[in-house]
Every structure is written in structure tokens, then in C-alpha cells.
Design a protein that fits this description.
Strand order of the largest sheet: 1-2
Largest sheet: 2 strands, parallel
Distance between the termini: 11 Å
Radius of gyration: 15 Å
Number of domains: 1
Oligomer: single chain
Helix content: 25-40%
Strand content: 5-15%
Shape: globular
CATH superfamily: Response regulator
């Protein structure tokens, strides 16, 4: 579906704009054959709410911030990523930055579960995509 679905990542604050991912994130993603070394942090822009059908947050705090940033006439659906799929006991993706190394693997597990559910949702509800 890569030719049918565009994906991007952005933060609600500008603290890390232009920075590379945390080296621990790079290492844990690499173990799953995902190369994020070329990624650079950017801040959510008002155009994002017009370009993307879904603007998804990792946690409730960022979802609240996105709701404050969303222009009134935008098309984007705001939600938590894990509202589409999760692992038992999680409704938000925790920030692994201050935790142990295994927190990065847990975050990737949660993101994979959320994305898998999101793909299922998109395929089931969007007639423009292959069923």
C-alpha cells in the first residue's frame, strides 16, 4: 500500500526540529529491519490537517495539543494511534526516552499494533484502496 498511502511524523512542539532520531530508537528499529537514520524531526504544521486524512497522536497530551492546532476547516481525523489496535493494558504509547532499553522495543511493538489496526481500518473503509 506504499503507493496508495502517505505517512509522515511530526511533533507538537519544536524542541527537536531538525534533529535525528535518538540513537536507541535507530538501533531498535534497525533490529526490525527499519532504517530511520534519514528521518529528521519536524513540528506539525497547519497544512498537515488539510493534507492528511488522519493525524494520530501517541498519547492523550499530544492529542490535546493537536486539537488546539487543528484548523476549523480541515479534513483530518484526530485520534490516538492505539485506538486502532494495541496490546493489552495500553491505550497510549509511552515515551521511552527516560526508561530502560526494553522500553524502545515495547514502543515499537505498540506502534506496529496500532499501524496494523489502522491499515485494516483504512482498507475496510476506503473504497479507493484495494480490498
Amino acid at each position: 500500500m506504499a503507493d496508495k498511502v502517505g505517512v509522515d511524523s511530526a511533533g507538537t512542539a519544536a524542541w527537536h526540529v531538525g534533529n535525528s532520531p535518538d540513537p536507541r530508537s535507530v538501533a531498535h528499529a534497525k533490529k526490525r529491519a527499519v532504517d530511520i537514520t534519514s528521518c529528521r524531526a519536524r513540528q506539525v504544521a497547519s497544512d498537515d490537517f488539510h493534507v492528511f486524512d488522519y493525524v494520530l497522536a501517541m498519547d492523550k497530551s499530544n492529542l490535546h495539543a493537536l486539537k488546539q492546532l487543528q484548523p476549523a476547516n480541515s479534513k483530518a481525523r484526530l485520534d490516538l494511534l492505539l485506538s486502532f489496535g494495541s496490546l493489552p493494558g495500553f491505550d497510549q504509547v509511552p515515551d521511552p526516552y527516560y526508561g530502560e532499553q526494553d522500553g524502545f522495543d515495547m514502543v515499537l511493538d505498540l506502534i506496529e499494533a496500532g499501524v496494523s489496526g489502522l491499515i485494516d481500518h483504512i482498507v475496510a473503509h476506503d473504497l479507493r484502496l484495494p480490498q
